[in-house]
Every structure is written in C-alpha cells, then in structure tokens.
Design goal:
Blueprint: H1 9-12, E1 33-42, E2 45-58, E3 61-70, E4 73-79, E5 86-94, E6 99-105, E7 117-119, H2 126-129, E8 140-144, E9 154-166, E10 169-180, H3 182-187, E11 191-196, E12 203-209, E13 217-228
Parallel strand pairs: 7-8
Antiparallel strand pairs: 1-2, 1-13, 2-3, 3-4, 4-5, 5-6, 8-9, 9-10, 10-11, 11-12, 12-13
C-alpha cells in the first residue's frame, strides 16, 4: 500500500532518490504470493486499494513484484528480495485531464552511510520497505533524502506494541511514527503506522495527512489478507 506523504512544496521534490547498498532492512519471510485489500478514507471519501505481491524470477535474477491498483491509477514496484529496496518503479495516474505514466530505474551508488539511516527510493514503496524494519521498542531511523534532505529530515520511531481492530478482527501490531525533525517537526503533522507484530509484518493501519497542512486526514485500514507459501 503506497504512500505519497506531503509536508511542503519543496518536500514533494524529494520523493525519488538514489539507493545505497547498506540498509537495516531485511526481508521478514514475505510469502511467495500475497493479496491485500485496504480501505482508504480521506475526509468523507472512501475507496479500496488492492495490492498483489509475487516473487518473480528471470534469467537467474529474483525480485519481489508489487502491483497496486487504486481508484485513480496503478503502480508497479520491483523490490530487491533481501533488502526490499525498489530498483524499478512504474506508475500510471489518471486525473481526469490526462493519463500520466512514469518509469524509474534506481541504481545503487555504492555510498556507505551510518547504520541507523534508512534510504528510501520512493515514498510510494515505504509501506513495503518498512515490513523489514528491525522492530523493537525505541528503535529509530533517520530517513535520508536526496541532497541531504535540504532541511527536511525525517525520523521513523517504533513506539511499542498495540492491539488494534481492523474489519472486526484483532491484530497485535508494532506501532510506529514518522515525522519531520527540528523546528518544523514541532508543528508539522506526523504519520502513524501499525504493522503486524509477527512476520511477515504487513501493514494493518495507517493514519496521517493526505497532503499539505490543512488537508483532510487520511486513514488506511486492512480489509483482507491472503497468502500462498512457496513449496520447499
């Protein structure tokens, strides 16, 4: 389930960056195939988000492929099977005026960064990447952005475990928070995530802004999950 987190006009320019080889993210045994449906609520508007994850292979190369379908478009993410970092992204957006298609290839630079930093190629893939986060109370990560973030540093923090209800079912989750650092962080809205506490750590609930300050809140909640486990 993708995210387009927006805090300012300048921050919008930072949604795509280069990947780096060192990461704290590790695949939490994501199944060979998953089908996940979420209910998205923005203000009074509701719509469904459908995610399909599959493990793909071709010519000896293996990757996780995610296809997401929403009311206004669809996205495809190809993720490294070990680090969950995207290396290829395709998006199609329909806004009534035009159909906008984008394709991005992400090539690692080999740059080495501190172990508590997390590099994100595109915030649309954030909910998939975070499934591999090292979940423990108090664990934090600085999310680095291109150009050093240009003053818009982000921090991701694990707050603890919490049991929540989604579609009438109880889920034990890791609760985490994403927010801007510094003076801006004191006034900017924060986003909160609830990921299943046990592997494969899929997203159960999200709460955060839908856009610029003053925009209606956005919630995303799990409606159904099914998986196919690969045969040994």
């Amino acid at each position: 389930m993708s995210f387009r987190l927006v805090y300012s006009a300048a921050f919008c320019l930072l949604l795509t960056s280069f990947l780096y080889p060192d990461t704290m993210i590790v695949n939490p045994s994501i199944p060979a195939e998953e089908h996940i449906v979420y209910l998205e609520t923005i203000g009074s508007k509701q719509s469904l988000i459908s995610d399909e994850l599959r493990i793909r292979s071709l010519d000896g190369k293996v990757w996780i492929e995610v296809r997401e379908v929403t009311d206004n478009g669809e996205s495809l993410y190809r993720l490294d099977p070990s680090t969950l970092m995207p290396f290829h992204i395709e998006t199609t957006t329909r806004d009534g005026m035009a159909v906008i298609k984008r394709s991005t290839d992400i090539v690692p630079t080999g740059r080495v960064e501190p172990s508590d930093h997390l590099f994100v190629a595109d915030f649309g893939a954030l909910s998939y990447i975070l499934r591999g986060f090292p979940w423990e109370i108090g664990r934090t990560a600085r999310i680095d952005l291109p150009g050093g973030g240009r003053g818009y540093g982000l921090s991701f923090s694990v707050l603890g475990k919490e049991t929540i209800l989604a579609e009438g079912k109880s889920y034990e989750c890791w609760k985490a928070e994403l927010g801007m650092e510094g003076v801006i962080g004191a006034i900017a809205p924060k986003s909160r995530f609830w990921f299943l506490a046990s592997p494969p750590h899929y997203l159960v609930r999200y709460e955060g802004p839908s856009g610029m300050p003053g925009s209606p809140p956005r919630t995303v909640e799990l409606r159904s999950y099914s998986a196919v486990i690969a045969a040994d």
